[in-house]
Amino acid sequence: MESRHRIRVGDASDMSDVAADAVDLVVTSPPYPMIEMWDEQFAEQSPAVAAALEDGDGERAFEAMHECLDGVWNEVARVLVPGGIAAVVVGDATRTFGGRYRVYPNHARVIEAFESAGFDALPDVLWRKPTNAASKFLGSGMVPPNAYVTLEHEHVLLFRNGSANREFDPGATRRYESAYFWEERNRWFSDVWTDVRGTSQERTDEREHGDGRIPGDGQALEDEGTPGDGRALDNERTPDDERPSEETADAADPPEEAAVPGAGGAVDRERTGAYPFEIPYRLVCMHSLYGDTVLDPFLGTGTTTLAAMVAGRDSVGYELDPGMLSALGERVGDLPERSRRVVAARLDAHRRFVREARADGLTFDYEATHYDFPVRTRQERDIRLRVVDDVQRVESGERAGDVERAGADENAGDVADGETEFRVQHAPVGDVPAGDS
Prior knowledge:
Its EC number is 2.1.1.113. With 437 residues, this protein is α/β, with parallel strands linked by helices. It is 25% helix and 20% strand.
């Protein structure tokens, strides 16, 4: 099986080179309005944002920033297949303007925008990011009443494009091969995720939690506790964009206001808004099938693309800042090994589940078709995981044209400026011997 991954430098508010209804799933995390690191990008896109920031008007800046995102959400509604899911990871922001410290509810404004674009909001997920920061509390320390709750969670918002689910032919092979395990369903479809830590967001630091070991699977890294145990790494930098610039500032003495960004070219940020690999990988497995196309209109450093590659889906990604994509080529270099770690972790985790469940007296009525273990439900029997065999970067002029459904003319045109495509070869994994577990 081959998957194709198209990456374009450009503004996703115009995705005219993607056909209507050509995308099956959207997984993205946009720049968070009112987080200072994104001010310059929003200001360059919108004079209204720049003016509001200069005037120190937080409410006006908040709305103007979201209006920049609204154009992208409208394009998402056009390219996403009816019944397709859009998953948006977003955090709220706290900030001080004119001596007034308050929270800016990004998640609520995104929900409003998607509903206005014709989506139905579905039950969402609260991603609780464990942290071991020593000075995590805001405000007046131990003295009431002027302390503030620390934002240590983000929202995984889920929307369906229209009122009806996607439809499939009865017994569609790729749907049942794309199944997840019963115990994965129980963990993934919980409305609170505590087993995925945040990742380092320094652009110069390539270390990333989410290197293929699945949180909660019982595998330990050499320098940390078991993934999913709720403990952050001692040497991990926890993202703190949601905090005022002075973490112990009292409400009567708020942090200094952010400097208004000036005009210029692409933003050369020292930090990114990257989420860990496990977040998009989990969402891709939850809401798409082998061969589906996944879109990320705010691609950043390309984590959604990597997740789609590992999961055996096609993908399309847009990113305004080409510098953000500079590391993607290096990250895909170890894709075959990463995919093998992911698959081995999932298979080993299921085997552990079977052993522990049997020890507790649970019986299994079904045997997996392709593996040496039983499964809990009939729908899991044909599950078949895939690994990456090879990755090739397609040079300009060699790739297919617009993204279309299967059967469309795949030689419709040349590569546009600022566009790259990767082609990934996948092989199904049959019966894999149990690991160290």
